[in-house]
Design a protein that fits this description.
Elements (H helix, E strand, L loop, with lengths): L1 H20 L1 E12 L4 E15 L2 E5 L2 E9 L2 E8 L2 E10 L7 E10 L14 E10 L4 E12 L12 E11 L4 E12 L9 E12 L2 E10 L7 E8 L13 H8 L12
Length: about 270
């Protein structure tokens, strides 16, 4: 009996330790993107992050969309759930000067949206991310690459489906509560027949209200005719921190994940 009690006590201690080490964060973002002169998208998305250990994070990013398209026959619109991105990211930070961080992530986009109404792609997609980040002093710098490996696109409705997206982001802590950020996103590789390669620049700010709660404001502007004209996203929650280059909570990725559900060529249920 004593052995059994000790075994139960040991298992309870292990479970308590695992629970103590795990962490759950959440946030909500609202945004709008002007894709072309006649096509736009509004989105409200949530992000739920589960961190069972210091090196592993799992994210789910549901979104509710309103998309509209103006044509010579009138304006067509659709509203409803978009596709569901799910991300599993691993990272390791080295205890050396500048705290370099290496990371990788797998992305799956589940077809929870109604593709016949222009909400989502109607099929499961998968992709992968690789990245590196450093933090010299008050600065935070990162570079990463994303690519779809199956399905139409596991990246975003804002990126060419068959391209590799490169992102370079930098942030600076101007005070313990304020961080300013700038970013550049570039598609490289083969353009798809439905969408050309894009180039965007972004600016953002993050303000900590009461740790760990923070508010974020992010915007981007397209540099080529194929790029979204402009994007604006505002977020509130505890899941928007982190310098890991492969989490969906850094500036351009916050924008991407808000609008990552895919817009088909059809808008409006027909």
């Amino acid at each position: 009996m004593r052995v059994l009690v000790r075994c139960v006590a040991f298992l309870f201690a292990v479970a308590s330790s695992v629970t103590a080490q795990s962490r759950i964060d959440a946030g909500v973002s609202a945004g709008v993107v002007q894709i072309t002169g006649r096509r736009s998208e509004d989105a409200v998305s949530g992000v739920l992050e589960y961190e069972p250990s210091s090196w592993l994070s799992v994210y789910a990013i549901p979104a509710v969309l309103h998309v509209s398209d103006s044509t010579s026959k009138g304006t067509f619109s659709s509203s409803g759930l978009g596709d569901l991105p799910v991300v599993a990211a691993v990272s390791r930070t080295f205890l050396t000067p500048w705290s370099p961080t290496l990371g990788a992530a797998l992305v799956a986009v589940l077809p929870t949206g109604n593709a016949s109404c222009g909400l989502g792609n109607g099929q499961t997609a998968a992709g992968m991310d690789l990245g590196i980040g450093v933090s010299p002093g008050h600065a935070h710098l990162s570079a990463d690459a994303s690519r779809s490996v199956s399905g139409v696109s596991a990246q975003s409705s804002l990126n060419a489906p068959k391209a590799t997206t490169l992102r370079f982001e930098g942030g600076y802590d101007v005070s313990p509560r304020w961080t300013w950020m700038a970013s550049v996103g570039v598609d490289v590789g083969t353009a798809d027949s439905t969408q050309a390669l894009t180039r965007v620049i972004g600016l953002g700010v993050r303000h900590t209200l009461a740790a760990p709660l923070m508010v974020t404001v992010d915007g981007s502007h397209g540099l080529t005719p194929a790029s979204p004209q402009w994007v604006l996203s505002i977020g509130l929650g505890t899941a928007f921190a982190g310098a890991s280059p492969v989490t969906p909570t850094t500036p351009l990725r916050r924008i991407r994940s808000t609008f990552s559900t895919g817009i088909t060529s059809k808008i409006g249920c027909r």
